[in-house]
Amino acid sequence: MRDVAIIGVSQTKFGELWDVSFRDMITDAGLGAIKDANIEGGDLEAMYVGNMSAGLFVNQEHIASLIADHAGLTPIPCARVEAACASGGLALRNGIMAVASGYHDIVISAGVEKMTDVVDPTPAIATASDQEWEAQQGVTFPSLYAMMARRHMHEYGTTREQLAMVSVINHENAAKNPRAQFPMEINVDQVMNSTMVADPLRLLDCSPISDGAAAAIVCPAEDAKKYTDTPIYVKASTQASGSLALHDRKSITTIDATVHAAKKAFKIAKLTPEDIDTIEVHDCFSINGILAIEDIGFVEKGKGGLAVEEGMTRLDGEIPVNPSGGLKARGHPLGATGIAQAAEIVWQLRGEAGKRQVEGAEVGMTHNIGGTGGTAAIHILSR
Amino acid sequence: MRDVAIIGVSQTKFGELWDVSFRDMITDAGLGAIKDANIEGGDLEAMYVGNMSAGLFVNQEHIASLIADHAGLTPIPCARVEAACASGGLALRNGIMAVASGYHDIVISAGVEKMTDVVDPTPAIATASDQEWEAQQGVTFPSLYAMMARRHMHEYGTTREQLAMVSVINHENAAKNPRAQFPMEINVDQVMNSTMVADPLRLLDCSPISDGAAAAIVCPAEDAKKYTDTPIYVKASTQASGSLALHDRKSITTIDATVHAAKKAFKIAKLTPEDIDTIEVHDCFSINGILAIEDIGFVEKGKGGLAVEEGMTRLDGEIPVNPSGGLKARGHPLGATGIAQAAEIVWQLRGEAGKRQVEGAEVGMTHNIGGTGGTAAIHILSR
Questions:
Q1: Does pLDDT of A1 surpass 90?
Q2: Is A318 within 8 Å of chain B by CB?
Q3: Quick one: how far is CA A322 from the chain centroid?
Q4: For this structure, is A70 an active site residue?
Q5: Complex ipTM, two decimals?
């Protein structure tokens, strides 16, 4: 199989985008990536779109062809791929596979979600959990992650303040990211005194409801310099599944799908966690920022809270996590997140991340999960 | 890239399956295919699931990992792919690509839809059309296809009786198919006198609301004889996109995505329509049984109605169409249809189709479309 490179990326501003329609939002992201890659739309041979639930959010399935039509890309083959909040990661992975295999030369992988057009997005989001065993019993995502957080506190002595620090660091970074939904700093007291959502998680532990889109263009590594002076190479692209329902797991403080996908990614890339200069992790709730660095292997299981408290994950720390602001502060339009993570890592590795630049970043990683970890997609990228 | 073979297929009975849950239905289909392929579940390396809208029909997204979990297949990578009613065709194509590329050796491609758990499936089905330009104006699928039928009658003199014959022939075949939703014969008078749905289309011109699932297992062609004496080889797997909304098309009596995907498939397979011994076409409404044989190239544009009237598409005709009973009479659980079509062709080419066997069938084809043709997926299979 061929090596693959990312030659162009783009992300819309994330937020409550009342003035942009679903199809315009994703087309804007796609055009941005096309421009960034120095190609023409007609060069694209296939499209994968990550989207969790346009059916429930905007009453539209069949979105990949819709987007191709709106963007003037027909008749290229295009598919929506879905694994809840990991849909973007899967879109990137399928695009990479289509190029690595030789099926196509230039492919666009995009992600999009428009979540603010419904009165209450909670029932739609709950469809990422196990409907029969979780959602129908009234369990929502904050409560599922609250159980994971409570158990982590019980097993490892993780503190409420450590959880808060995940959000504080995310907002520190988001304040330097013009595309972030919440580009302002917050402090631990503000998190600790914000509205209770599901004990122990409070409002400022939770990622927001967001609209947004992102896109990435991949091509064979050997061709990448034709289009850009700074191609970013795909060192590994992996994916794993795990049980949707929490009660089916050996432990609810470890996400097995993350462990499997990360191990496989390091093996394929012939790298270790020490080689990673920066990572975008899937911290839809603050506890997940701690689970992720443990499950991927940056710290021992149970030590994630302390690592965050001690500043390990800060922009100037040992392993800067979520320089973009993460799901908490950049925003979390479900299907777009996996692609936005890759876009951030591409900007970091190119040295184009402005005030949030991780100095000297040469190898980066993305970690995108669906639901409470029923799916995990991992990418390792390098200059 | 490697050649690929189908070594196992399965289909549940299609119908109103009140006593089977979504996850049990698709797991049944998967287990059937595993048994048919003479493999163990643990041999599967990846899964693609075609599904149009479990979100709207059973309030469940994130279905691929859910199924993997329920079937004991975690942590293999698994993805849902969606392009409305062509979702099954895309799942098959992505499974084939994953094997052809060398990413995986044994992959299961499945399709599933449970449509009868909602009071009114019409709004969910309408999300396959262009929401802003069609569905929100009150247009539903019968009315979209009615416009296509009316225009075809106007342009080419296609008659109401010819449309009826598409359904009559489908039911002739379904009567010989134990897995069909409506295994009984009907006559032209019954179609012509059935309830009007959207002029000129009547109830018996329309495919039903169905529950059902199907699965297919693919592996490298060079390994196929290890598992089965009758591997069925994939000669071409193609896909194309077109505009979702009818008003965006040059003509509403030609489905461009079908034309593109079919042309490409014949080119890749180095075959012509004359080489095809039998085909499963996507006749969600009777008019589509006529459009399909024209757009794929079995007959000249405008001559499809006459060909059907003259018996060309009958089981003993020149090109037997839908030996399974087609979408009309086998049933049409949206995401399952593309895989069920492939299963039928596999049975036909193996000579296992019982009373509906097309004598001496050596090369077969499937034609699966999404919406009114925003997506088309074509497969050519051979002994």
A1: no
A2: no
A3: 10
A4: no
A5: 0.96
